[in-house]
Amino acid sequence: MKAFMTAFRISALLLVLCGILYPLATTGAAQLLFPKQAEGSLIHVGSVPAGSELLAQETASPGRFQPRASMAKYDPTASSGSNRAVGTKDYVEETLAKASDWRKQNPGLAEMPADLVTASGSGFDPDLSPEAAKAQIPRISKASGIPADELTKLVDRLTKGRQLGLFGEPRVNVNALNLELSKRTP
Known about the structure:
Blueprint: H1 2-33, H2 35-39, H3 89-105, E1 127-128, H4 130-135, H5 137-144, H6 148-158, E2 159-160, E3 171-173, H7 174-184
């Protein structure tokens, strides 16, 4: 019984320290030292430095890069994946419907990169593969009037490589791309 009570007291102490006091202290310090950043915000053109790592945000403009699909509908208070298995009928039908929508929005799309029709685990991933970003260039060029080769150079310039040269895949931040486009077009 003595061992149980000791373990219980230690667990209660750690719960209070790690589960209550530490989160309160770090949140309070963040609010005092970095009040704007601690609150977070949606992108407002001109107020966010290019290249910032932000949550994915939906855009309906054909002249902008579209992010990956979001099961949470880009609502940061409702993070979720679909929890559907890849082989289920619902998942396959949903993916085929997304592919059909992408083909309608992007006529002449020869190859469909997987990240255009699949959602990220959290639903907030702001990154696409460079191939998925480049697949959108003809539509964006037509809608914005920016030459396709200029858009390709923009994607290449903002593409980040593997982390430490080993981990992950090359990626490009959709928000950074759209912020750059907003500087060139209204």
